[in-house]
Design a protein that fits this description.
Shape: elongated
Order of helices and strands: EHEHEHEHEHHHHHH
Radius of gyration: 20 Å
Strand order of the largest sheet: 2-1-3-4-5
Number of helices: 10
Length: 216
């Protein structure tokens, strides 16, 4: 137990048996108390915003809303919330995406609870974590990706248009959704193509996805 404070833990995972086993194991650890759980992303966000635990243990693969999507929403709603990803995915890209979305750490599900509990407490209390089980990638690398995503200097409106393009909307549908004229939509698309150095919608969407320009 760090600083004599109980850490309130929320578990977000779509496997009931995993949640149950993890809850029982963590509740036996001094300094940790599981205060809630959820089986899908949207339910998790709703309960976490309502209950405001100290730390969330969240899986990447969640029905309804992905773990990464939930992390983005939670980071905006609760900036001080500590978020630790528990996943079976070992690839660097998944770790990088979670960290870029706002996670505080990434741990594989193969970890033993005796190794997990001190990581939870350290992350919860913003203490340095020295563990071979924590798969945080270099924050410099993540910051570089974020910088790359901002290189195009797209405006908020241009990003809105780009999101509609990703959804397959034609100019008239985009104009109706944003309450602007088709000519204004065409002008936004022209600026998007120029800033991104592309010549068509497919190239624009592909590049936006590669550079994490779209909140998807």
């Amino acid at each position: 137990m760090l600083d004599g404070k109980i850490s309130r833990v929320f578990i977000a995972d779509d496997h009931p048996l995993f949640r149950c086993g993890l809850r029982m194991s963590l509740d036996q650890k001094a300094g940790l108390e599981v205060v809630g759980e959820a089986g899908d992303g949207f339910e998790a966000v709703e309960k976490i915003v309502s209950d405001q635990p100290d730390i969330v243990l969240i899986d990447v693969d969640m029905p309804g809303l992905s773990g990464i999507g939930a992390i983005r929403m939670l980071r905006k709603a609760l900036p001080d919330l500590r978020i630790l990803v528990l996943s079976h995915h070992e690839d660097d890209r998944c770790v990088r995406d979670c960290m870029a979305a706002g996670a505080d750490g990434y741990v594989l599900k193969s970890i033993d609870v005796d190794a997990l509990s001190p990581i939870i407490e350290c992350v919860c209390h913003a203490k340095p974590v020295f563990s071979p089980y924590l798969l945080n990638l270099s924050m410099d690398e993540i910051s570089k990706e974020k910088q790359n995503s901002a290189d195009f200097a797209l405006t908020a409106r241009e990003k809105e248009v780009l999101n509609y393009i990703l959804d397959g909307k034609v100019n008239k549908q985009i104009a109706d959704s944003l309450f602007i004229s088709c000519e204004t939509v065409k002008s936004h698309i022209k600026h998007i193509f120029r800033k991104m150095n592309v010549t068509n919608r497919v190239q624009a969407v592909q590049l936006a996805m590669e550079k994490n320009l779209l909140d998807r």
